[in-house]
Amino acid sequence: MVKEDESRDRALELFLKIGLDERTAKNTVANNKVTANLTAVIHEASVTDGCEKSIGNLLYSVATKYPANALVHRPTLLEYIVSSKIKTTAQLDAAFSFFSHTGSESFKLHEFEEACGVGVEVSEEDIEHTVSEIFEERASSILEQRYRTNVGELFGHVRKKLPWADQKSVKQIIDKKMLALLGERTAADDEKPAKKKEKPVKVEEKKVAVVAAPQPSEEELNPFKDFPQPEDNFKVHTEIFFSDDRVLRCCNSKEMLNKHLTVTGGKVFTRFPPEPNGYLHIGHAKAMFVSFGLAKERSGCCYLRFDDTNPEAEKKEYIDHIKEIVDWMGWKPFKITYASDYFQELYDLAVELIKRGHAYVDHQTPDEIKEYREKKMNSPWRDRPVAESLKLFEDMRRGLIEEGKATLRMKQDMQSDNYNMYDLIAYRIKLCTLEFETRRASYYWLLHALDLYQPYVWEYSRLNVTNTVMSKRKLNYLVTKKFVDGWDDPRLMTLAGLRRRGVTSTSINAFVRGIGITRSDGSTIRLDRLEYHIREELNKTAPRTMVVLYPLKVVITNLDAGSVMDLEAKKWPDAQTDTSAIYQVPFSKTVYIERSDFRMKDSKDYYGLAPGKTVMLRYAFPIKCTNVILADDKETVVEIHAEYDPSKKTKPKGVLHWVAESSHGVDPLQVEVRLFDKLFLSESPAELGNDWLSDVNPHSKVVVPCAYAVPSLGEAKVGDRFQFERLGYFVVDRDSTSEKLVFNRTVTLRDSYGKGGK
Fold first, then answer.
1. Does the first or last residue of the chain, that is N or C, have fewer Cβ atoms within 10 Å of its Cβ?
2. What is the SS3 assignment for 197?
3. What DSSP assignment string belongs to 591-633?
4. What residue stretches are annotated with the tRNA synthetases class I (E and Q) anti-codon binding domain (predicted)?
5. What torsion do the CA atoms of 41, 44, 45, 47 make, to the nearest 10 degrees?
6. What local confidence, expressed as pLDDT, does residue 436 receive?
7. For residues 453 and 446, is the Cβ–Cβ distance under 8 A?
């Protein structure tokens, strides 16, 4: 740790020298990948002794945004930055675009300079003149909207006319023009614009907002647009900087690429490689979408490759589950294979690595390896003869060496600035299994060392969702310690749990498509966003019905005891005369409403039933409360008496769902309803450390054993989905029996994502 801290301190000092502010520098040091990139950029640019802040900021952008397929041209760009030939973010962005399209191919310098505006000088006067012209053209609009004017649009117009203008100067001049034209900002400028008054509508679903679906982004329409074609895989994947100043630029030769394309027929080949040591969760849905989705979009092939390299944690149950879930998610593997299928081939490659002098058998303990890595020291066995390593490696394979007494390590670069090049372990003796530690640099180093084809590796961030945990270790703990009811508990973000909750695979894929294949580290997506996509689909596919969770008896006093009317209810809001979109509901003398839909005291903002008040029973009649029967405690409401209006002349605002007896004295259909909520109270329970279990929501599962349902629900089958009017979306659970149906709540009707929680 001491060496690691010293390395970070040196990096921090270097970053401060190039003018980064302290906060940015510290955040950079916390990210190993950006630290390695920025350190390499500073050395390439020969500014290890420092530079102007404006140049340093551009170098930081190069370290974080430069296209990986054109690393061979990065030194050229750095020369232009250090010499101030490229000095604005607009020019730099244009350079990124130019090199992204150029890749590792050669280019003409004058074309690059023209594309990046090299030599073009935009003065303050030029910007002032252009901004003045734009303000004159739009003066009336700006005066009308004042400080609500879309300044971004003004920026866009300036950028169109002066693409190489300094954006900071543009902003300052626009701000100055706004102040000169409008004067100081007033309180009225900060008020939200008044909305036009609209005719009030009936409140039928507790003021649920109806939100228009957002327009799909370009990435949603084509999330795979940035992936290269197979024939383009000759560009540099990564650069490896060795401590002896050598630089390895990993890429396929044209000969190697042509050989690969001949074998594959030019098709895209991908793989989804889950470990069979647990149930798949929603993070795996993203991995499946990328691997299977890319292959499908490009008419290619995707392997389902089980990474069965740890027999201690693997079960056939998990393998069967993964196969089933992949199919349920809508993906069809080209082939199903196992890493163990290739153990002999991998062993042979390891032998070849030793023969080429790129690997050795080591006897250091894990603590010694850690210490030597921190000190950047070579293992005492690093330079042992090849023949000796070959014999020892064979002894390892045959089980002649005790577990933990030997490992096969790759001979990389123990003095590198990249700790992923510190002679990583390729094999260890552990139940005769393969254990290969790898990162991007070491992975391509290995392929290069063995003269193997170098596939394109796309690194994207793992998917994290709020109010849950994704760690298999934590999920396993929740299951084994009975915090939840198994791997498919509807409160878990396992795909089996989501399926049992009633979530569809198509809505999960829509969610993954919507968040995009981002490379940003540690992205956490709000649960609301997943729920938005769930509602979007269920709103179109789940028929409406009525269920009362906590029934309160209502006796219709002006209806005969034996009278039962069969009324028509709609499965879909816009249903007309189509009989398939209509179901029958009985209306009789005894009706049940939600207990929460009655109050003893009425108020203006309350749309439920109260003494002397009238409400509409959905698809039925208006009823007016005429009497209330209380329990002995004089507080608990036992029964309500009401009169119905058969003429429907009364037009109350409140509309309630209800269930009635289908015949006199016979209770309605009884069902069990399970109301599921967030499993954890906080958005990031994993950040609570050892206290994460204290954050479990004690009300994440509420069972309602005796809810009342309309008779037509009695025909529902396991997996059928419904919208219970005013309550949410529900699915028939597999615990249902012929005597009693069980429903799981999938999601409520509330939609905070669509209302701004994006």
1. N
2. coil
3. EEEEGGGB-SS--TT--SB-TT-EEEETTS-EEEEEEEEE-TT
4. 655-733
5. 90
6. 46
7. no
Copy the structure tokens of residue 506: 């198509």
State the DSSP string of 452-504. Answer: ---------PPPEETTS---HHHHHHHHHTTSSSSTT-TTS-BHHHHHHHT--
pTM confidence score? 0.69
Q: Where are the alpha helices (DSSP H) in 83-223?
A: 89-102, 109-116, 124-137, 139-145, 151-161, 167-182, 187-190, 218-221
Distance CA 90, CA 171 (A): 14
pLDDT at 753: 47
**Active-site annotation, residues:** 275, 462, 472
- Mean model confidence pLDDT for the chain: 87
Q: Which distant-in-sequence residues (6+ apart) come within 8 Å of 226 by Cβ?
A: 517
- The torsion region of residue 345 among left (phi > 0), alpha (psi -120 to 50) and beta comes to alpha
Tokens of 691: 């206290």
**Dihedral, CA of residue 522, residue 523, residue 528 and residue 531, to nearest 10:** -100
Name the least confident of 97-101, 111-115, 437-441, 457-461: 437-441
Residue among 422, 410, 408 at smallest CA distance from 450: 410
User: What's the rounded Cα separation, in Å, for the pair 75 and 81?
Assistant: 10
The tokens for 208 are 């649920």
Nearest CA-CA partner of 326 in 376, 271, 369: 271
Measured N-to-C along each axis, helices 53-65 and 32-44 cross at an angle, to the nearest 10 degrees, of 120
* CA–CA gap between residue 216 and residue 239 (Å, rounded): 36
Q: Are strands 728-732 and 741-747 parallel, antiparallel or unpaired?
A: antiparallel
Residue 534 near residue 509, CB atoms below 8 Å: no
Confidence at 217, pLDDT banded by 50, 70, 90? low
Contact 21, 15 (CB under 8 A): no
Q: How far apart are the first and last CA of the chain?
A: 40
Please give the structure tokens belonging to residue 593. Answer: 């409403």
Q: How far apart are CA 651 and CA 644, in angstroms?
A: 12
* Strand ranges inside 496-589, DSSP E: 524-525, 544-545, 547-548, 551-556, 564-570, 582-588
- The token pair at 133 is 């012209």
Residue 4: what pLDDT?
Answer: 65
Q: CA–CA separation, 43 vs 234, rounded Å? A: 26
d(Cα 461, Cα 623) in Å, to the nearest integer?
A: 56
Cα–Cα dist 743/189, whole Å:
51
Task: Report the phi/psi class of residue 103: left, alpha or beta, with left for phi > 0 and alpha for psi in -120 to 50.
Answer: left
The residues near 204 (Cβ < 8 Å, ≥ 6 apart) are: 618, 655, 725, 726
The candidate with the shortest Cα–Cα distance to 48, out of 23, 5, 11, is 11
Q: Are 500 and 746 in contact (CB under 8 A)?
A: no
